[in-house]
Specification:
270 residues, alpha/beta, Purple Acid Phosphatase, chain A, domain 2, six-stranded mixed sheet, 6 helices, 25% strand, globular
Length: 270
Amino acid sequence: MLRESAARSAQLADGIDAVAPGLLWIRETRTIVAADAHLAYEDVIGGALPTWSTTDAISVLQKAAAELGARELLFLGDVIHGARMSDGAAREVQSGLDRLRAHAAVTLVAGNHEGRTRGADVLGDTVEYAERSGWLLMHGDHPICHGERAPLGAPVEPRPSLSRAGVIIGHLHPSIRSNGTSAPVFLAGPRIIVVPALTPYSDGLDVCGDDCFEALQAFGATTRSELQVVAATHELVYPLGSVSGLRQELRRPSQPQQHRYRRKFLRPDR
């Protein structure tokens, strides 16, 4: 399988790039897209831990916004790990989002972890989807069927359709697994892009598995060979070829690898 050279960014579609450390960059609107941040994770699960991952996520986004000259930071659902959290954690999330607003406009797409309230008490206003540069951006917890999305308990909004360039989703926490390690990855097909999770607390859904491909079929994916994989580390992104090629390679006997991708996690949130 041919691998291109690692770089700070890799083009996924016309005008859309994967950038380290796992963020999407839409050039026309100068939008950074971050999926599945799960802010306040440690507090929501009841762990006796500081919410260090919230601080880290905000710092990553501040740095990316400054380096890229972003006009917008768009969270692609599961902004928070849950709508019920301590007052202190809520203030930390709100303060972090305010710091980001000092760099760029912030758009919050709601996901399943925002629940029926869509996280209103912590996040304020959220949207069910957004459109940028001809692409539909939504969390991805509900498939699009016949051009409609109707999440249970969600505010009534005009229903989106796929009569656009395609759809950009999160939700799946796409990853690759090998030799006991897990790496977050982007997936990109002709009409779909999946953004990896920003949270460090999930080992993700293996893109080589049947569950991942079945989920992508609901968004128009038809073959594994059309889906390109780009792994992300803190500093670089690594184009790895197609899902079908990767499946074949990972079935081979293990060989020494120049690069190993490791993630720290307490437990998956799937």
